């Protein structure tokens, strides 16, 4: 009896050590597939099972699906649950673990089709429970040998699953947060996303206004209203997406922040929310790259039998107020100031061209040339202001 007691203490001590190692191992990753693979690998090894499955409950529709498996050489079967569905559904529904030393003789399962067809013998299935909610189950079996699992094995597997459930839940939460972050970044420039996350706290959701010295760039497709009437809805959206995909890539490559889209127009700021000293230079380089990209876009349009476009751009440099406008229910990071209005006004002058204010021309980088354009009465001014046109030579590539 003494030897048996000592053996049990050694066994329990070893299992505690293995659980500690598993907990440490699972905490090293937040990628769901990595976590599941580590759990599956440890379960098969520690339980000495021939086959195992991790089945998770879909948080949206409640369906069960195999997320990880081991013991199947056939790649086509790795996502199929080949154990007893009755057992797994019972575990998920009740939250109670199941152990069967010989399922073919077990009154609970011996009449089930999966047990008969696969000649299932030793089975253990335990729930994955976190925050008092069953999120799935861990299932192991041996289709060939009976009586290889005992009650204490069920308890040990449950201990493993309790650790796994926490790791799986954390990985799912991280996966969800990354999805939301990417979704947010698809609607708001990454600069703003990072800026808001970095500056916001639990008590601060509404960022106050900050003054920034910036260069605004506004673009507008000439004659777009007429052009849009010649296209059906799907064609129009496809056209705009193709155009904006190119413009967005150019803007982001030059460190710009897309403040908003206005139909066919795009308002871009250089120097907010994160301040930069060379905002005018960045904006002018971006404008030049946009013109070249529009030329490539037009050549593709013409070759496809579609109309070419002309895009007006306006640039103005000065001070704006950057911050959140709205309420706790709906807010938007936006820019307020004369340069916003001036850049929009200049972008709509026809024929379309790249025009800039004197404050932008004063920061013209080396290699850029401008020509005088007729003085224009800008918003907020009491007399016509000098306006300049960016000289651009586009060569076919």
Describe this structure in words.
It is a single chain. By secondary structure, the protein is α+β, with helices and mostly antiparallel strands. It folds into two domains: 2-187, Beta-Lactamase, CATH 3.30.450.40; 207-390, Nucleotide cyclase, GGDEF domain (Alpha-Beta Plaits, 2-Layer Sandwich), CATH 3.30.70. It has eleven helices and 13 strands. The protein has helices spanning 2-26, 32-47, 85-94, 113-118, 151-187, 190-199, 224-229, 233-253, 279-303, 338-347, 358-361, and strands at residues 51-57, 64-70, 98-100, 122-130, 133-142, 210-221, 257-262, 265-270, 311-326, 331-336, 354-357, 370-376, 385-390. Strands 6, 7, 8, 9, 10, 11, 12 and 13 form an eight-stranded mixed beta sheet that branches. Helix 1 runs parallel beside helix 5 (151-187). It starts with a helix and ends in a 7-residue tail after the last strand. The model is unreliable at 1-10 (pLDDT under 50).
In CATH's first tier, which class of the largest domain applies?
Alpha Beta
Domain count: the total is 2
Report the CATH topology name of the largest domain.
Beta-Lactamase
Give the number of helices: 11
* Number of E strands: 13
The span between the termini is 89 Å
Shape: elongated
Strand content: 15-25%
Write the layout of secondary structure elements.
Blueprint: H1 2-26, H2 32-47, E1 51-57, E2 64-70, H3 85-94, E3 98-100, H4 113-118, E4 122-130, E5 133-142, H5 151-187, H6 190-199, E6 210-221, H7 224-229, H8 233-253, E7 257-262, E8 265-270, H9 279-303, E9 311-326, E10 331-336, H10 338-347, E11 354-357, H11 358-361, E12 370-376, E13 385-390
Helix pairs in contact: 1-5, 2-5, 8-9
